[in-house]
């Protein structure tokens, strides 16, 4: 990939800058502007070199996102003048974006002279503004995309040991390749989130009404691996008794009942993981340890605090995990040099599994 620092004769040129401002919005309020902040070095560099910028982003699913609130937050956060920056419409409002349509890509290309991709978090998508647009204009990588590639590559390049991989979240099918890969690359692999449900069920434990993937992943062999760390206790709540429905209870994994749902890993499991973290030299963490939106955020917050306070080289990623981090520490954008926070969700997972992304390949 060519860095945007390699662009020549940029003064007066129009740069089509692909960003990912698909921010989490609840009840009309933006909850986290992390992705805006991480693009500002690229934007400021282009402005300092005399370029004009057209920002390309998507928002929401099914062509539903209105950029108004995002644009307002951008001007508030960036504190930039409006004379050399403008926004294109939500690119997913055009059918050609997700269809990776050449006609749509050519329409976008006609608006500028140079293309820069600083949207690592959407670079796993085979979409027109990611895949085709860089073939129609001189194409470069933005600073955040380059930082993502550089830092995430440490996970399978020259990582320090002991190497701890923590994996949480929900989608077992997308995370299974990562578990298999890092049981080889890492020294220990700690499982959290809804992924725990599948492993506990495979071990013969009752998981009640917890979310499980009914696919046959043949987890028996993984369970024999001494690198695998599973919780010894969990936080549950009852789904059948309204009188105690809001009561969260810490239980050993062999005590879960049929009317209960697992929300988080338990207190002893947090202590066990904390001990492993203290001994680790490199930590890679993707996805929350519990169902944080339903009250299962305790373990994630405790472990995040521990990781942030340590001097261990660490990488954390996944949109949900970053949201918890932002709620825990609003100043988390200015992190210590030993901690890298990825802007990606699915893109981070794909990169960790494959070592590249379609959007990165398109810049090559």
Describe this structure in words.
By secondary structure, the chain is α/β, with parallel strands linked by helices. It folds into two domains: 4-141, Phosphoglycerate kinase, N-terminal domain (Rossmann fold), CATH 3.40.50.1260; 150-354, Rossmann fold. Helix content is 36%, strand content 18%. It is built from 14 helices and 16 strands. The strands form four sheets. It has a six-stranded parallel β-sheet, sandwiched between helices. Strands 5-4-1-6-7 form a five-stranded parallel β-sheet, sandwiched between helices. Helix 7 crosses helix 13 (346-354), helix 10 runs parallel beside helix 11 and helix 11 packs across helix 12. The relative contact order is 0.13. The mean pLDDT is 91.
Give me the secondary-structure topology:
Elements: E1 14-18, E2 25-26, E3 29-30, H1 34-48, E4 52-56, H2 68-78, E5 85-87, H3 95-98, H4 102-109, E6 114-117, H5 128-136, E7 139-141, H6 143-152, E8 163-167, H7 172-185, E9 188-191, H8 195-202, H9 220-223, E10 228-229, E11 233-238, E12 249-252, E13 260-265, H10 267-279, E14 282-286, H11 298-309, E15 313-317, H12 319-328, E16 339-341, H13 346-354, H14 358-361
Parallel strand pairs: 1-4, 1-6, 4-5, 6-7, 8-9, 8-14, 9-10, 14-15, 15-16
Antiparallel strand pairs: 2-3, 11-12, 11-13
């Amino acid at each position: 990939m060519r860095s945007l620092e390699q662009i020549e004769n940029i003064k007066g040129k129009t740069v089509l800058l692909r960003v990912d401002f698909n921010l989490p919005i609840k009840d009309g309020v933006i909850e986290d502007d992390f992705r805006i902040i991480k693009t500002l070095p690229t934007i400021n560099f282009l402005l300092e070199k005399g370029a004009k910028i057209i920002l390309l982003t998507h928002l929401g699913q099914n062509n539903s996102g209105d950029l108004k609130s995002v644009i307002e937050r951008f001007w508030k956060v960036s504190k930039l003048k409006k004379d050399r920056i403008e926004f294109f419409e939500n690119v997913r409002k055009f059918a050609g974006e997700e269809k990776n349509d050449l006609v749509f890509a050519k329409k976008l290309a006609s608006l500028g002279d140079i293309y820069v991709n600083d949207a690592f978090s959407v670079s796993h998508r085979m979409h027109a503004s990611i895949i085709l647009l860089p073939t129609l204009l001189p194409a470069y990588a933005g600073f955040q995309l380059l930082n993502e590639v550089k830092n995430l590559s440490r996970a399978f390049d020259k990582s320090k040991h002991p190497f701890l991989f923590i994996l949480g979240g929900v989608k077992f099918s997308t995370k299974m390749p990562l578990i298999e890969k890092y049981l080889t690359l890492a020294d220990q692999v700690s499982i959290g989130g809804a992924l725990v449900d599948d492993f506990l069920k495979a071990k013969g434990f009752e998981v009640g009404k917890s979310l499980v993937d009914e696919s046959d992943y043949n987890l028996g062999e993984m369970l024999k691996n001494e690198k695998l760390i599973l919780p010894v206790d969990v936080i549950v709540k009852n789904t059948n008794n309204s009188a105690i429905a809001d009561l969260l209870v810490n239980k050993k994994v062999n005590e879960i009942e049929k009317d209960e749902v697992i929300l988080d890993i338990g207190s002893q499991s947090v202590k066990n993981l904390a001990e492993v973290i203290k001994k680790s030299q490199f930590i890679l963490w993707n996805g929350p340890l519990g169902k944080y939106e339903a009250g299962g955020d305790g373990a994630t917050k405790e472990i995040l605090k521990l990781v942030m306070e340590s001097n261990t080289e660490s990488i954390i990623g996944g949109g949900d995990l970053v949201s918890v981090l932002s709620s825990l520490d609003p100043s988390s954008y200015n992190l210590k040099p030993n901690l890298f926070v990825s802007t990606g969700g699915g893109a981070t997972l794909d990169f960790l599994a494959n070592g590249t992304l379609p959007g990165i390949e398109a810049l090559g």
